Amino acid sequence: MTKPAAREPLRRNSRSNRARILATARQELGRNPDITLEELARAAGVVRRTLFGHFPGRQALLEALTEEASEALREALVRGARPEEPAERAFAYFVLSMWPVGDRYRMLLGLARRDLGAEWVTEVLAPAREVVTAILERGQRDGVFHSHLPPAVLSAALEAMTVALLEDVNSGALEDDGTRTAVATLIAAGVPEKRASAVVEEVAATVPPEEPAADA
Predict the structure, then answer these.
(1) What 3-state DSSP class applies to 46?
(2) I want to staple 120 with a disulfide (CB 3.0 to 4.6 A). Which of 1, 19, 116, 184 is the partner?
(3) Residues with Cβ < 8 Å from 190, sequence gap 6 or more?
């Protein structure tokens, strides 16, 4: 008769291996998007069979990372929601709360488009896009943001700029903890530079640190 207690260490070990593989994949794919699963297994300190037991192929691994990113995004949206704040402050809260997630998963944007299809990126980013569009619409009504572009179009433009800045961080061309990007996006939305800098400085002092990722 199999003892149930003997299964729990095996399950814990399996969860630990999976978390370690995903954490290693986030790091190594950022350095080399074409790394093989065999190379990832070695980097994660597991045998090839263990990695393939969790992720039978590259697409399965990327899908798991995308799901992980989606969950982290939803949690960041909850942390960064400030509907009671003026639009400029609400937008700064949003950018600063989202930055750690974007920083951790920035390599996924290009990989997901290439390997999984653009619809994966659209699905993951949809909740954030809705939040930003609503903030921009409110700010345009209040005269805080310029109204030269419709809210959804302005949101897409600011998203593209943020992605470009994340890529500059990835390449080493820019050092940023999110505050420079928050200021830049507020300026692009129509907030004067001095006001944008002051808002971000005020908000940054109140944004709690992100919960550490549950990596093994």
Answers:
(1) coil
(2) 116
(3) 144, 145, 146, 148
Query: What is the rounded radius of gyration, in angstroms, for the C-alpha atoms of the chain?
Result: 20
Position 104, amino acid? R
What is the torsion angle, in degrees rounded to the nearest 10, for the CA atoms of residue 120, residue 125, residue 130 and residue 132?
A: -150
Cβ within 8 Å of residue 38, ≥6 positions away: 48
Of 191, 198, 184, 193, which Cα lies nearest the Cα of 95?
Answer: 184
Contacts of 112 (CB under 8 A, 6+ apart): 62, 66, 120, 121, 124
CB-based contact 51:21 (threshold 8 Å): yes
Residues 6+ apart with CB under 8 A from 203: 89, 92, 93, 96, 182
**Which tokens is 126 given?**
């949809």
Q: What is the pLDDT of residues 164-187, one digit of tens each?
A: 898 888 778 999 999 999 999 999
| Helix runs in the chain, H state only | 4-31, 37-44, 48-54, 58-80, 87-111, 118-141, 151-171, 179-189, 193-204
Q: What is the pLDDT of residues 83-108, one digit of tens each?
A: 889 999 999 999 998 888 887 777 77
Closest CA to 126 of 145, 152, 148: 152
